[in-house]
TrEMBL record:
Name of the gene: cobQ
UniProt xrefs under CDD domains: CobQ_N (cd05389), GATase1_CobQ (cd01750)
Similarity field: Belongs to the CobB/CobQ family. CobQ subfamily.
Domain CobB/CobQ-like glutamine amidotransferase stretches: 248-447
Protein name, UniProt field: Cobyric acid synthase
Pathway: Cofactor biosynthesis; adenosylcobalamin biosynthesis
Length: 504
């Protein structure tokens, strides 16, 4: 069946975004197409309609293919909890926590599952566009590989090898990668793509010819450097540090920051600047401080406490607005208790005491999609939607009230109805300037984002504005991406590699 795999010379060379582009191009050309990445390592995850967890990169690729994200697009997700340990998610559910060596030794257990799942996908779609991870030239991992050449061999997929010229040394990276591949692996590589090019293509062309003479593989194209409002691979994200617009939003860049894609929807607000800080000196006097999610809440709380940033945030709370999301919400409370050692060896730690809540970590992970409405803000019934991924529960004290009422679980973001429920989420203080929620993607909902941004605008005597729908912005950006890639790579060569005839 028709398939193609994008591998790279290293992490962050643009594999994810190239797969996203190919999914949209092939969809535009009339094919049913599906993304697939057997193993992803990321702290940016997403919850599907059936309450399962997957990597965000495959979510964007699913949207590019015109599909609802499902975990078969990313069967294995690794979420680092420290430098040497990760939580392993298999088919959307927690499989366990393992060191790098423990996981390396268990990878081959998943080969049959990955092969059978992929074969089922081939029955449902015209083309599968696959993504590798890191580099296939990581020769120490070759024996147990299930995401690069090991996966390509398992399902007999042709490979395109992508290199990032913006880092420098792209010819050496491509040639060196090919040098370290085994002969049968080299035969799988059908073309190269050079990504993130800036400059005069005519100057580059002699190098392309020389590279082809060295590795005997054609170049399918050179993709120019571009900036679009789309999420990229974790390691490729550039965290802005400067104020670039009238509304100044500060995000605390925690050491184990997760789901920073929660802030992507703010790109739809043209007068809003989002900057990430790590020190108290960078705080300044922003209009809003956001404490985001984290994969290790207690360790990150200790880090910002010891750096003095916690005291700076507490001082800021006397006059400014603060929003905590998931782990950031938990940090705002009185205490965080972990009697089962879910996060580590520390049983209990004092929080910032900006919200009258207490968090108890539990071993069961809550993963669900939600729709919610505000109930204790100055304006009630402001709607939003998103998803929960957390292992803690919060109890309210006398000085805190719920921020949202959840009225639907596991519905999509448009019209489909899930399970009608009534439960509470988040908290808000009496003054209404400190808030917290477990809902990731809370700004995706236009109503809530518009309410918060206009509240900030009014405080600065800026005229309120109507917020744009984030989904429509994302669709336009994906189409722009597809146009850029289509114009700069040889799609006839791509179709030949896939082994399918282009439709007129």
């Amino acid at each position: 069946m028709a398939k193609i795999m994008v591998q790279g010379t290293a992490s962050s060379v643009g594999k994810s975004i190239l797969v996203t582009a190919l999914c949209r191009i092939l969809k535009q050309d009339g094919f049913s197409v599906c993304p697939f990445k057997s193993q992803n390592m990321s702290l940016n995850s997403y919850i599907t309609l059936d309450g399962k967890e997957m990597g965000r990169a495959q979510v964007l690729q699913a949207y590019a293919a015109g599909l609802e994200p499902e975990v078969f697009m990313n069967p294995i997700l690794l979420k680092p909890t420290s430098d040497k340990k990760s939580q392993i998610i298999v088919n959307g559910k927690v499989y366990g926590n393992s060191t790098a060596m423990e996981y390396h030794n268990m990878k081959l257990k998943f080969k049959d599952m990955l092969k059978s799942q992929f074969e089922e996908l081939e029955k449902k779609f015209d083309i599968i566009v696959m993504e590798g991870a890191g580099s296939p030239a990581e020769i120490n991992l070759r024996e147990r590989d299930i995401v690069n050449m090991g996966m390509a061999e398992l399902i007999d997929a042709p490979v395109i090898l992508a290199g990032d010229i913006d880092k420098g040394g792209v010819f050496a990276s491509l040639a060196g990668t090919m040098l370290l591949l085994k002969e049968d692996e080299k035969k799988r590589v059908k073309a190269t793509i050079i990504n993130k090019f800036r400059g005069d293509l005519e100057i580059l062309k002699p190098g392309l010819t020389m590279l082809e003479n060295i590795i005997h593989i054609p170049c399918a194209g050179v993709v120019p450097y571009f900036r679009l409002d789309l999420e990229d691979e974790d390691g490729a994200v550039e965290f802005n540090k400067k104020i670039t617009a009238p509304i100044d939003i500060v995000v605390i860049k925690l050491p184990h920051i997760s789901n920073f894609t929660d802030l992507d929807a703010l790109k739809a607000e043209e007068d809003v600047s989002v900057r990430f800080i790590t020190t108290k000196e960078e705080l300044g006097n922003p209009d809003l401080v956001i404490i985001p999610g984290t994969k290790n809440t207690i360790d990150d709380l200790i880090t910002i406490r010891d750096s003095g940033l916690m005291d700076a945030i507490k001082k800021y709370s006397n006059k400014g607005t603060i929003l905590g999301i998931c782990g950031g919400y938990q940090m705002l409370g009185n205490s965080l208790s972990d009697p089962s050692g879910v996060e580590g060896s520390l049983d209990k730690i004092e929080g910032m005491k900006l919200l009258d809540i207490d968090t108890l970590f539990e071993e069961e992970k809550i993963t669900t999609r939600v729709k919610a409405r505000s109930i204790n803000m100055k304006t009630s019934n402001v709607k939003t939607y998103g998803y929960e991924i957390h292992m803690g529960k919060c109890s309210y004290g006398e000085k805190a009230k719920p921020l949202f009422e959840i009225y639907d679980r596991n519905a999509d973001n448009t019209s489909m109805q899930g399970n009608i429920v009534t439960s509470f989420d988040g908290a808000i203080n009496r003054d209404g300037n400190v808030m917290g929620t477990y809902i990731h993607g809370v700004f995706d909902g236009t109503e809530f984002r518009e309410y918060i941004m206009n509240t900030l605008r009014v405080k600065k005597s800026i005229k309120p504005k109507k917020s744009k729908t984030y989904e429509s912005l994302r669709e336009k950006e994906i189409d722009k991406l597809a146009d850029i890639v289509r114009k700069n790579i040889d799609m006839n060569m791509i179709y030949k590699i896939i082994g399918i005839k282009k439709r007129d």
